[in-house]
Amino acid sequence: MARYSANLGFLWTELSLVDAVRAARAAGFDAVECHWPYTTTTEDLRAVLDETGLPMLGLNTVRGNVDKGDFGLAALPGREDEARAAIRQAVDYASEAGVANVHVMAGKNGSRKTFLDNLAYAADRAAPSNVSILIEPINQRDAPGYFISIVEEARMLIEELDR
Prior knowledge:
Layout: E1 5-7, H1 17-26, E2 31-33, H2 42-52, E3 58-60, H3 80-97, E4 101-103, H4 112-126, E5 132-134, H5 151-161
Helix pairs in contact: 1-2, 2-3, 3-4
């Protein structure tokens, strides 16, 4: 039987995150996910997830300075401190709110070594709280220059990381 997750970064954007979770339940979704839930407290998010019985499957690390074109930080040399702060924020938030997965956003035109180092940091940070770390290839049409754009690249990175 098919199960469906509502991405609240696209659906019910006129509502607060708490009310969007309720709307997803009312619409019959089996789970939710969102990009950046950080304006909602972890307590409020956990409470509405418990109330609705919906799991939140994932959230993203912050993008960085959006006004300057950032679309993630983890692969950007020289910005490791920012990337790791974003990873800590996302993993801690996910752990406290009961979110299963964190997508570590790579950024544009990055470095393989920097990305792998930051993914290792993320995996080590997430392991004690049973939060899984995700990477996502994003197509070049929607995110020109994004560091990972095809599945084969993601697979090779995962194999090289060996975590």
